[in-house]
Each structure stands twice: as C-alpha cells, then as structure tokens.
Amino acid sequence: MYPWIQEGTMKQLKKQKKTSKINAKKSSLQGKLFKAFGIIVVLCLLMSGFNFFSMTFIHNGTEKIVEKESKALIQSEQLRYNMAQQISSVRAFFLYRSGKYQSEVAQLQKDSEILKQGMLQLSNNQEVENVIKQADNWERELNENVIKPASAGMKVSAEQSFKKLESQSENLVAQLDEIAKSSEKQISDAGAQIISSGNTMRILGLAISILIVGISAFLAFNISKSITLPLKKLSRHLSEISKGNLHHEPLHYKGKDEVGDLVESVNGMNDQLKLLVGEIFKASRQVGEQSGHLLHSSSEVREGSEQIASTMQELTSGAENQASSASQLSGAMADFLEKIQTANEASASAYTTSKAAISQTSAGTLLMTKSVDQMTTIHDLMKGTVEKMKSLGEQSKEISKLVAVIQTIADQTNLLALNAAIEAARAGEHGKGFAVVADEVRKLAEQVSSSIVDIHSIAANVGKETDEVTHNLNGGYAEIVKGTESVHKTGESFAVIKVHIEEMSAGIQEMQEHFQDILLNGSAMNSAITNIASVSQESAAGIEQTAASAEQANSAMEGIHGNAESLSGLSKKLTETVNKFTF
C-alpha cells in the first residue's frame, strides 16, 4: 500500500551504511573543543611567558640599581666623609697633642681602606680607580709627612705638609662629588629606563590580553553557533515528529561530528516511523475486517447457546426450587420442633421463675411500704429544717440591724469624746482629768467601732451562708417531695406487677401443656418432608449436569464474542491513532 515509504526507507538505510563508514574519519565536538581550548591555553602560556620576561627584566634592572649603583654612591659619600674626618682629627691632634686623635686617624684610615676596596669591586670605571690611587697616596703622605713628624716634635714641618695635603683633600673630595653625581645620574637613567620598559611591557601585555579575549570570544561564538543552530533545527524537527507530522524534508548538516551523526539518526528514525506507521495502518485495517466477521459469527452462535441455556436454566431452576423448598421445609420443621422443645423448657423455667417473682414481689411490696413511711418521716424533718434556717436568716438580719445601731452610738460617743477633749483643753489645768477620761472614752469608742466592723462582716457572711444553706435545703426539700411521690407511685406499681405476674404464671402453665402436644405431631410431619426432599434432589442433579454443559458452551461463545468486540475496538483505536500521523 505504501511502496514509496519502503523505497525511501531502503534508500535511507543504504545512505546510513555509507555515512557510518565516513563517520570513522569525522572529527568530534570533543576534538573541536580541545582545539579551541588548546589555542586559548597556548595564548595564555605566551602571555605568562611575556609577563615572566617583563618581570625578570624589571627585577634585574632594579637589582642592579640597589646592589651596585646605590652601594657605589653610598660608599663614595662615606669615603668623602671619612677624608673630612681625617682632616678634622689631624687638626685636633695639632691642637691638643693627644694620642687619642692619632688613634682616630689610624681607625679612619682602616675604614677608608674597606670603602676603597668596596668601590673597586662595584665599579670598573678608570676615574674611580684614579681617585682611589690618589686617596691612597694622600693617606700615605699624611702618615709620613704629618703624623710621624708631629709625633716626633717637628710641628712646623708637619703643619706645612698638612696645608699641602688639605688642598689635595679638597681636590679628592671634589672628584668624589663628581663620582657621586655620576652614580646618581646612572641610577636616574636606569630607573627611567625601567619605568619606560615597564610602560611598554604593560601596554604590550594589555594588547596581548585583549587579543586573547577576542580570540577566545571568537572561538566560543563560532563553536557555540556550530552546535546550537543545528540543535535548534533538530529540536523543531523532533517537535513536528512528536505532533505526528512525518511528511517533511530530511535535515542537512555539513559538519562531520556528533551533531551530524545525530541528524542522520533522526532522519533515519523519521523514515523508519513512516514505514512502521504504514504497516500498522495496513494491519489495523485487516484486523478490523476480520474482527467484524468474527463478531457477526460469534453473535449468531451466542444467541443459539443462550436459548438452550435459558431453557435448561428454567428446568434446573424448577427442580432446584422444589428440592430447595423441601430441604428448607425439612430444616425449618426441625428448627421449629427444636424451638418448640426450647420454648417448652423455657416455659417450665418461666413458670418456676414466675413463682419466685411472685414471692419477691410480695417482699418488695412490704419493703416499699416501709420506704414510703421513711420518706414521709424525712419529708417532715427536712420541712422543719428549712423553716428553722429561714428563721436563722431573719435573726441574722436583725443582728445586722442591731450592729448598725451600735455603730451609730459608737460614732456619736467618739464625737462626744472629741468635744469633751476640746472643752477640757479650753478649761486648762482644771480640765486635764476630764481630758484623760474623754481620751479613754474616745479610744473605747474607736475599739467598739472596729469591733462592730468585724461583727458586721461576720454577720454578713453568716447571713450569706444562711441564704445559701436555705437555698440548698429548699432544693433538697423539693427533691425529697419528688422522691416521696416516686416512692408512692413505685408502691402502687409493685401491687399491679404482683397481679400481672400471678396471671402470667397461670398462662405459662397452660402454654406448657400445648407445647407437649405440638412436639408429638411435629415429629411425624418432619419424616414425610425428608422423603420428599431426597426425591427432589435426585431429579435436580440430572438437570444440573445438562445445564452445566450448556452454560460452558455459552460461556465460551461469550468469551469469543467479547474478544471479537475488544479486537474490533482496538482496531478502531489503532486506526484513529495512525490517522494522526501525516505522511
């Protein structure tokens, strides 16, 4: 039905075989990434080498300045200062004639020798060597023509020689100044050269860094573009496939890497899906046709089987109902006789119990009469208690009134005592005794007032509690009244119960006699029912075997019919699913 699908698929399979041979020569994405990363690493190594060279150059220039030029400058300055100190010490020796200054000169000359040796080691300049030779001659003449004659007492000759040496020392100091200035100029030139070289190297380093960043960005952009663009096309292609659209042109990719392999695989998958969906559509149509025929045949066979099964079912049902009814009747009769026997025994027990109940009811009636008499006595006592509590409440109220009167008297007494004290104060000496009495009366009135407050509080509490007790007693009294009425009614109920129990006992005795007659007739009836049940069961057994065979055949055809319907539904669903694809 779909020869063009099969032909396209075969071509695609041949193409995949050819491309699988070519894939061995393809370069992978990993190789591209490693190449780009290798270029960046090489550029970084070049940058590192350039930085190392620059730092080495600057370090060597700085080390030369610090280790050589600066030390030479310092030593020339120290040598100049040393010669000045020698001149000063010789002058002090002429003035004071002390061996101390002679020792200072000797020490200074030793220090001068160390400085001169250091200058010769640091400098290869001929001018420096000439100055050092002149300094050696100057120190030798100072020792021979000044220090030794002065020590021997030839002061005039020593001073004349010293004046000549002073002029020579000034010339040496001037030469040393020139050497120092030359060293300073060399240090300045070397520093300027280092700074200029550093600026140049910094600019070159910046340019190399920008170049590395540019190359890295270029490589990253091209590599990411070469990966993402084909993947986006591939994603759109797969999205169309997922929607069922298989009718589109195959993807093309010029690269020779994993993305190309993926594109080829997706193209092959698309072609395989076309072939697969076509075969499924063809098979689903054939299955639909065959399932329709099978469904029609199974329907006809099932209808015949159902008619046979229905007839046999009716026969089986009648025989089973007859046997079941007989069995149920036999069982029910046996249960009935058993229950009659149980009822007979229960009636005998009930008769005995009713006799005991009559006796207990008589005793209960006597106890209820006594209870009524006791409840009447409690009712009278509680009534008297309630009346007494009411009287107690009234008396507590009277006490409160009396306490209020006493409080008023105490207040007036206190006021009179205060007035008496005022009058006694006016009387002066004659009223002192009266004032003492008035003060005692006032204190007594205050004590009475304080006590009256306590009495009033107690009386109020007593009145409150009396009211509460009265309320509770009223409630208890009401409950006792209700209990008395309930006891009276209970006594009346016991009398009625006694009459009914006596009547029930007579009825139970009569019922027991009838149960005995029923037991005798029921045994004969149960034997006849058992015989009918056995015959019905034998008839039902044969009918059930025939019905079972018909049921099996009907069940098998129903299974075939159900499978045919299920197969037809699956075929329709499969066709609907395949129709979603676009070829």
**CATH top level label of the domain at 330-551:** Mainly Alpha
Residue runs with pLDDT of under 50 for 5 or more positions: 1-13, 15-25
CATH architecture of the domain at 330-551: Orthogonal Bundle
Going by CATH, the homologous superfamily of the domain at 330-551 would be Methyl-accepting chemotaxis protein
Query: Helices and strands: which structural class?
Result: mainly alpha
Percent helix, as a range, is over 70%
The N- and C-terminal alpha carbons lie at a distance of: 13 Å
List the helices and strands and how they pair.
Blueprint: H1 3-22, H2 29-96, H3 99-122, H4 126-152, H5 155-242, H6 258-427, H7 432-579
Tell me what you see in this structure.
This is HAMP domain-containing protein. Keywords: Cell membrane, Coiled coil, Membrane, Transducer, Transmembrane, Transmembrane helix. With 583 residues, the chain is mainly alpha-helical. Among the domains are: 63-193, Up-down Bundle (Four Helix Bundle (Hemerythrin (Met), subunit A)); 330-551, Methyl-accepting chemotaxis protein (Helix Hairpins). Helix content is 93%, strand content 0%. It has seven helices and no strands. It has helices spanning 3-22, 29-96, 99-122, 126-152, 155-242, 258-427, 432-579. α1 (3-22) packs across α6, α2 runs antiparallel to α3 (99-122) and α4 packs antiparallel against α5. The chain is flat. The two termini are 13 Å apart. Mean pLDDT is 71; it is low at 1-13 and 15-25.
